[in-house]
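Structure first, sequence second, as always.
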């Protein structure tokens, strides 16, 4: 297919939604508050460590790449308030990084971003052991902005690779993997966006994604905004849509992909993959390379976040279950590699079993 050459893959000319930014004066993390969508678009400006950590924990900012971007800019912003002596600065920077790392365990992008910033500081100290704190802040700022820019570049490029694979027709997606979940454009939803921009006739089936409704609140909001045809469905309707032949492919994102291609993503993704296998429908995972964790042999080693029982018991502000009923609330599941047709990255589209070699 030659159509991919028409896609804009330049992050410097990207004009779409950027939900995670550094404020123009460079002193605050700016976030589009995803808890308020789709009711209203509220932008928050945060500069305190605890506020930034809580924003990640409460899904004010969410989606693996966006979490990484928020942590990167967040750590830089926090560094502005740290002591001016190098030893104290470094000790407090480590503590701040540890607090941010403690927010959400599954999205590996969080740890990649924090490691990139810490490594950049270490590299500066190796070259200049007496480096002033001002210089170290400069390094943090440049590394954080580079992380965000690289994420956008990856999304635009994987969008182009994925668009060449996506068939016309019904496309099922789960959770939100759009601009909101990244630095912009999106991963799985970025592929949908890129394919639509190229003229592929699509109709997106949006799983509402219980318990926190990232599909109905966020994905549907993005698709309606872009004018991409879509239908919102409850999670338990996906099987019926597949059985009726209304879905030609499924595409989802990932929070962490192990070396063997097993992929952790929003709870319910595994169910979609099993259904697709049963119906002979291709099931794609789209993610930037920062989501691939080659240090883990398989998905069994991916830490899965368990969230508050009240996210399941309470819906729309009202109790929908006995207040004391025991609840399980794993936020993610692992889709085994054998159910995945292809993993779409900025480096190209891989069969799950090819990841390890591609990563060398
Ligand atoms: C491009 S986002 C990929 C994943 O992070 C996404 O599918 C997902 O599962 C997000 O979960 P969330 O709990 O909303 O952060």
């Amino acid at each position: 297919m030659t159509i991919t050459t028409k896609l804009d893959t330049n992050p410097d000319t990207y004009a779409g939604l950027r939900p995670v930014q550094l404020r123009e004066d460079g002193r605050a993390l700016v976030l589009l508050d995803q808890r308020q969508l789709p009711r209203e678009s509220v932008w928050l400006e945060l500069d305190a460590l605890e506020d930034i950590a809580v924003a990640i924990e409460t899904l004010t900012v969410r989606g693996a790449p966006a979490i990484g971007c928020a942590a990167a800019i967040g750590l830089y912003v926090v560094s502005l308030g740290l002591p001016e002596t190098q030893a104290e600065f470094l000790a407090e920077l480590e503590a701040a990084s540890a607090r941010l790392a403690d927010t959400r365990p599954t999205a590996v992008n969080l740890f990649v971003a924090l490691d990139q910033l810490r490594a950049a500081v270490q590299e500066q100290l190796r070259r200049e052991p007496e480096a002033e704190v001002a210089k170290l802040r400069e390094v943090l700022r440049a590394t954080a902005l580079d992380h965000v820019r690289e994420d956008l570049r990856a999304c635009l490029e994987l969008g182009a690779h994925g668009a060449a694979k996506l068939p016309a027709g019904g496309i099922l997606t789960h959770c939100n993997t759009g601009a909101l979940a990244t630095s912009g454009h999106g991963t799985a939803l970025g592929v949908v966006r890129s394919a639509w921009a190229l003229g592929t006739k699509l109709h997106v089936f949006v799983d509402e994604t219980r318990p926190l409704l990232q599909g109905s609140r966020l994905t549907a909001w993005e698709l309606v905004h872009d004018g991409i045809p879509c239908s919102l469905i409850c999670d338990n309707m996906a099987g019926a849509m597949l059985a009726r032949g209304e879905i030609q492919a499924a595409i989802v994102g990932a929070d962490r992909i192990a070396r063997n291609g097993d992929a952790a993503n929003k709870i319910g993704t595994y169910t979609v993959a099993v259904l697709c296998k049963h119906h002979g429908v291709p099931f794609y995972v789209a993610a930037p390379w920062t989501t691939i964790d080659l240090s883990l042999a398989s998905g069994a080693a991916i830490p899965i976040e368990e969230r508050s029982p009240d996210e399941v018991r309470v819906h729309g502000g009202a109790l929908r279950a006995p207040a004391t009923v025991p609840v399980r609330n794993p936020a993610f599941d692992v889709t085994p590699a054998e159910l995945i047709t292809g993993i779409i990255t900025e480096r190209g589209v891989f069969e799950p079993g090819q990841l390890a070699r591609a990563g060398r």
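Margin note: The two ends are 27 Å apart (CA to CA).
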